Amino acid sequence: MTKRIGVGIVGASAARGWAAAAHVPAVAALEGYELVAVATTREASARAAAEAFGARHAFTSAAALAAHPDVDLVVVSVKAPDHVPAVRAALDAGKHVLVEWPLAVTADEAAELAARAESAGVRHAVGLQVYASPGARFVRDLIRAGRIGGVEAVAFAGGGDPLGGSRIYKDLAWGTAAGTGNDLLTIMVGHTVAAVELVTGARFAEVSAVTARLHDQVRVVETGEPIRNDVAGQVAVVGRLVGDAGLDGGAVDPGPDRGAAPAGGAVVSISLQGGNGGGPDGFYLRITGTEGTLTVTPADPGHYSNWATWRIRLTPAGGTPQELAIPEHYHLAPAGLPDGPARSVAGLYSLFGSAGSTASTGYAGSEPVELPTFQIAARIQRTLEAVARAAETGIKQRLTPEVVAA
């Protein structure tokens, strides 16, 4: 019998939080995983979480959790400024690591963690759930197969709720301070950049940007209390992509009857606007190729799962739009999980567990899969810092060849 992967979650509060809403039910639904340990900053809350979630061990530090022999995989689900020490502790203990997005507050920190993880020889990933999205993976393969020819342009527009608007939920209010890694640019634009890169197989080579901070103060949704706001709530990015999927002479051959993409690479535009503290907003993604267009919208607008449940329409050049059903094998999460945070995160765990074979921890499978690794996280964070510089200076930023190739 294959050993189940022992999961230890740093930041698993029983009272509230992302770990309780997403990671705990995801682990419980997956046969190959078992929650064995939790860690919070206080002994009482750690014990309460262990009892509530059925974990055998409770700790007050990431280092103690990572050092326990029952823990194979350390999941870091704390505030972004606390990611680095928790990830370092896991790597020092030689444990596999899954950490929420962003990997670190700065790109330099993210690059340092990526280098450490490679040296440690462990599996590592960040919480970019779009990598496990059935719709995103299906669109990626449609583009790889040349269904729209060479990609010429990508346009994304969406709302930023629950970030960036005139109101903020109490649990997210700490992110209104600058440099926390929990604002519209870091979170929402970061996830969007990841989605664009995933489906096109391309990389951002240059970016221009405009940001706006329309509210010096925002109100806490639950109390109405006004608090200071130091982060932008509106972001618009224009850039150029180079890489695969028919871009700039990339690796995917669109076929003899399909056009090639322009040599300069495809143009991409991203527009994200903060909301008013409501639920998740919808989005619109349009990918234009030489031989057709793919249009993506949420299957259930306004629902949390709109990022994960995509409605996909393919319009061949000169043809009639057709809605495409996502084949069943693109769904990675267990069928019994309802749409929501746990389902998205469970898909990411499924990817993580099948990304190669590590007999010592019971990982099964040897087929290569595409994980959002620490290297990918560091590259995206470099791109986001280039976006911030472009917005601040008004000067187009060109990413170095090393960053684009990473």
Automatic annotation (TrEMBL):
It comes from Phytohabitans houttuyneae. This is Oxidoreductase. Keywords: Oxidoreductase. Residues 138-242 form the Gal80p-like C-terminal domain. One of its GO terms (molecular function) is oxidoreductase activity. The keyword Oxidoreductase applies. InterPro entries: Gal80p-like_C, Gfo/Idh/MocA-like_OxRdtase_N, Gfo/Idh/MocA_oxidrdct_glycsds, NAD(P)-bd_dom_sf. Residues 6-127 form the Gfo/Idh/MocA-like oxidoreductase N-terminal domain. Coiled coil: none annotated.
